[in-house]
């Protein structure tokens, strides 16, 4: 499955160009103050200064590129994020901030800036205040991506169609986001020693929301955090992190995969970067010599060296063969920011943020990875069988093991499970996608994003033009409206049914329901009961019982079993 996550970042690199230009820099040190009240104006007053937004799509207002922390540069590299500096005058908030430094292997370039800790706010135009808040965490394997990477991630859909305030953010990724070296934590707050800098950035953004969102007409007492892929894994990390306690009230997890890293794994990967940097800067002749040198350098000297090299130098230690750093250890089980048992905390019940949860996956998660890797050929039967079993394993480890564990706890919060099927061929091979795209991609990883967020694109202009057609427009619209009705109700009340009259009841897992299938094979949305919960063991048993030895061997080899 790690290979799947590796290819995920490859695809993000392929479909996205280098990200938006730097937000306009008007920040100067000044005096902070109280936030203003929402009055319908494009100029809002945050704790750190005034910001001017703009009129955006579908009757919304937006404020882009707002700093939620000081730039993590110089002495602040590999430190827990600090409050942004106040500014004087009115800051123009009309363009996105830069993405975090990252390697885009298909382009063969390294992109982004360490000055990346910016967030974006959308809301419906008008005077209404105390609106629910929807905080979205982008995906990209925690090694690529940005809040503006795709229009799919923009907030105008949720703001206009669900009447909510939408917030998205950039956060540190790859080795600048998760890194463990003891020399770096001297004189820092305890959280800096965790190595979970990307995780701490997301927590800092949630703190910014708590302290400032009322100025935009949002209700800090009703915050839903949502994310897809690595963003969903980061949402799970918020559930188990005591550092995030009280900062959100519901959670939506789309296509997560259950995985964290040990301190030992993170330390080993980080020491490899340190050694590579020492060799690149000609302080050692070999990696072995560099490791010996690092072990004997005074901590202050090593820390100064690591903070003196450029972000580009750090990314250069990640060879193209590592495919955009997507195998980089992240969400580190340090015992402070993330518990030592990681996501096993859902099984024991020993996690702090027990909030209502929506969690699910797509019927054919793996097809997009198989298609871009060109192995196996999309016309082959192995392609179909591998996609089926790969998606079942994804569901087992990223959905059912978590939903079943939480639902078995005493006094558990409700857990609502879904499976997104739109685009998957039916038993006759028919799909709402045109031509052969149903077989090639089907209900692929990230296909649900625009349906959940109310946007009009799918993986950028190229795929939107190929997959979204006039013939499937009615079904797409009906399905998007239904899903957003469920999620709007969930964000407001913690129950997807409470404010969604006319839709089938979406029962929580604890009531004996496996979940809800979301589809639109024709012009109307169809919401039907999900018929099974699976485990890794049950999926592998099915594989061995139902497939030929040749198919079994080919699938087991590809999934690493």
In summary, what is this structure?
The strands form 4 sheets. The chain has an 11-stranded mixed β-sheet, sandwiched between helices. A 3-stranded mixed β-sheet has the order 1-2-5, with no helix packed on it.
Strand-helix topology:
Blueprint: H1 2-15, E1 43-46, E2 49-52, E3 54-56, E4 60-67, E5 90-92, E6 102-104, E7 109-111, E8 118-124, E9 131-137, H2 156-162, E10 165-169, H3 174-177, H4 197-212, E11 218-228, H5 230-240, E12 250-254, E13 261-262, H6 263-280, H7 287-296, H8 299-308, H9 311-316, E14 332-333, H10 345-348, E15 357-362, H11 367-373, H12 381-407, E16 415-420, H13 437-440, H14 449-453, H15 460-467, H16 473-493, E17 516-519, E18 526-529, H17 536-546, H18 549-558
Parallel strand pairs: 2-5, 9-10, 9-11, 11-12, 12-15, 13-14, 15-16, 16-17
Antiparallel strand pairs: 1-2, 3-4, 4-8, 6-7, 8-10, 17-18
CATH topology of the largest domain: Rossmann fold
Looking across the biggest beta sheet, what order are the strands in? 3-4-8-10-9-11-12-15-16-17-18
CATH superfamily of the largest domain: Alpha/Beta hydrolase fold, catalytic domain
Distance between the termini: 10 Å
What oligomeric state do the depicted chains represent? single chain
Helix content: 25-40%
Strand elements, count: 18
CATH class category name of the largest domain = Alpha Beta
Strand content: 15-25%
Low-confidence stretches: 1-31, 320-325
């Amino acid at each position: 499955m790690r290979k799947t996550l590796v290819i995920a970042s490859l695809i993000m690199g392929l479909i996205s160009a280098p990200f938006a230009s730097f937000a306009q820099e008007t920040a100067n040190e000044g005096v902070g103050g109280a936030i203003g009240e929402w009055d319908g104006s494009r100029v809002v007053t945050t704790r750190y200064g005034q910001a001017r937004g703009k009129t955006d799509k579908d009757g919304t207002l937006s404020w882009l590129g707002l700093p939620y922390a000081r730039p993590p540069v110089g002495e602040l590299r590999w430190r827990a994020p600090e409050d942004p500096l106040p500014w004087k005058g009115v800051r123009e908030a009309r363009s996105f901030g830069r993405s975090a430094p990252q390697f885009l292997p298909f382009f063969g370039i390294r992109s982004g800036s360490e000055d990346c800790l910016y967030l974006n706010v959308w809301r419906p135009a008008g005077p209404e205040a105390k609106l629910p808040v929807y905080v979205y965490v982008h995906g990209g394997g925690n090694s690529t991506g940005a809040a503006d990477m795709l229009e799919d991630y923009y907030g105008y859909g949720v703001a206009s169609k669900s009447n909510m305030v939408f917030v998205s953010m950039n956060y540190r990724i790859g080795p600048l986001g998760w890194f463990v070296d003891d020399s770096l934590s001297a004189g820092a707050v305890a959280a800096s020693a965790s190595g979970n800098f990307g995780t701490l950035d997301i927590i800092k953004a949630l703190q910014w929301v708590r302290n400032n969102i009322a100025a935009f007409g949002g209700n800090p007492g009703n915050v839903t955090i949502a994310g897809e892929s690595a963003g969903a894994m980061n949402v799970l990390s918020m559930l188990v992190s005591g550092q995030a306690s009280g900062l959100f009230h519901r959670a939506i997890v789309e296509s997560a995969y259950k995985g964290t890293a040990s301190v030992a794994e993170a330390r080993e990967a980080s020491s490899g970067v340190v050694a590579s940097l020492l060799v690149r800067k000609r302080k050692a002749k070999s990696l072995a010599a560099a490791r010996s040198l690092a072990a004997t350098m005074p901590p202050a000297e090593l820390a100064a060296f690591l903070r003196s090299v450029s972000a580009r130098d750090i990314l250069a230690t990640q060879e193209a063969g590592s495919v955009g750093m997507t195998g980089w250890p992240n969400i580190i089980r340090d015992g402070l920011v993330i518990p030592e048992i990681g996501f096993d905390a859902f099984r024991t019940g020993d996690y702090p943020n027990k909030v209502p949860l929506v969690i699910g996956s797509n019927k054919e998660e793996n097809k997009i990875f198989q298609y871009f890797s060109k192995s196996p050929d999309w016309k082959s039967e192995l392609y179909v069988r591998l996609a089926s079993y790969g998606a079942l394993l994804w569901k087992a480890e990223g959905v059912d093991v978590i939903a079943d564990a939480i639902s078995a706890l005493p006094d558990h919060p409700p857990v609502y499970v879904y499976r997104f099927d739109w685009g998957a061929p039916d038993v006759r091979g028919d799909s709402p996608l045109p031509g052969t795209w149903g077989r090639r991609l089907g209900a692929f990883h990230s296909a649900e994003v625009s349906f959940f967020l109310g946007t009009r694109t799918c993986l950028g202009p190229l795929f939107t033009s190929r997959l979204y057609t006039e013939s499937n427009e009615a079904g797409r619209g009906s399905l998007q409206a239904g899903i957003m009705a469920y999620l709007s109700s969930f964000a407001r009340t913690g129950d997807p049914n409470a404010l969604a009259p006319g839709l089938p009841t979406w029962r929580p897992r604890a009531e004996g329901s496996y979940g809800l299938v979301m589809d639109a094979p024709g012009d109307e949305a169809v919401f039907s009961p999900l018929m099974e919960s699976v485990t890794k063991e049950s999926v592998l048993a099915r594989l061995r019982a139902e497939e030929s030895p040749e198919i079994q061997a080919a699938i087991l080899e590809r999934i690493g079993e």
